[in-house]
Amino acid sequence: MNMLHYVTESMAYMISGNMDSGSQHYHLEAAISKCFASEAAWWVCDEAIQIMGGMGFMKETGLERVMRDLRIFRIFEGTNDILRLFVALTGIQYAGAHLKELQNAFKNPTAHLGLIFEEASKRVVRKVGLSIPPAMDHLVHKDLTNSANLVAKSVDSFGQAVEMVLIKYGKSIVNEQFILNRLANATFDIYSSVVVLSRASQALKENSESAAHEKLLAEVWTSEAMERVPLHLKAISTGRTLDNFSKMSTI
């Protein structure tokens, strides 16, 4: 409950900071934050009722009304199911544009040798397992370097997974909702980890009273979230899972 509260609050701080700084492009962050916050609030309220036992149902505690009121938040201002598809489809547009650029380059290879060789080098390095994840350790406090490296590895894996589904499905990816949902879930875990690392780093930098506690929250959340990301990504490439998706679609 404590971690979900911390992550939700961190997302609110991040998007508010972006808006206050004049950013005009925060629709993805807003969609992720809305989904995460509404689902986290529901889980926390449900857990609070569970902790209180039978008393959780009593009007005097106020929880039964909170749970009723919370239910609508996963529906209005964009249902969470639709927002997940929005996040996934909007997020992969950049990768799609890059692949389109590469496709055009191969139509006139002599004029785009630099781009082609650069892409070929990346793929060869990745194929032999020598690819280097994007560096993030310089963006966080030194005490959170290990957590940042976990996120960096997930970002690299996520990028490869997105490229794989775009090559495989092309424009028809818009019809693959089971796959898009898994990509969105991976996005949520990566983004939530980034915002808590940012907030905890700031607390450590300022040596605030809550710094040590925030460091623990960030480390645990990031560790668990980065364990989930490979599971989400594996689901979009494993034959058995894809077969299940096909059967569920038929059902």
Task: Describe this structure in a few short sentences.
The protein has 251 residues and is mainly alpha-helical.
Structural class: mainly alpha
Whole-number total of structural domains: 2
Ranges with pLDDT <50 over ≥5 residues? 102-107, 109-130
DSSP strand count: 0
| Largest sheet properties | none
Q: What is the count of helical runs?
A: 10
Helix content: over 70%
Strand portion: under 5%
Terminal Cα separation, in Å? 36 Å
Overall CATH architecture of the largest domain: Up-down Bundle
CATH superfamily of the largest domain: Butyryl-CoA Dehydrogenase, subunit A, domain 3
Q: Compute the gyration radius: what is it?
A: 21 Å
Give a written overview of the molecule.
With 251 residues, the chain is an all-alpha fold. The chain has 2 domains: 2-78, Up-down Bundle (Butyryl-CoA Dehydrogenase, subunit A, domain 3); 93-241, Butyryl-CoA Dehydrogenase, subunit A, domain 3, CATH 1.20.140.10. It has 10 helices and no strands. It has helices spanning 2-20, 27-52, 63-71, 80-91, 93-107, 113-127, 145-169, 177-206, 211-235, 239-250. It starts with a helix and ends with a helix. Residues 102-107 and 109-130 have low confidence and may be disordered.
Question: Which helices and strands, and how do they pair?
Answer:
Layout: H1 2-20, H2 27-52, H3 63-71, H4 80-91, H5 93-107, H6 113-127, H7 145-169, H8 177-206, H9 211-235, H10 239-250
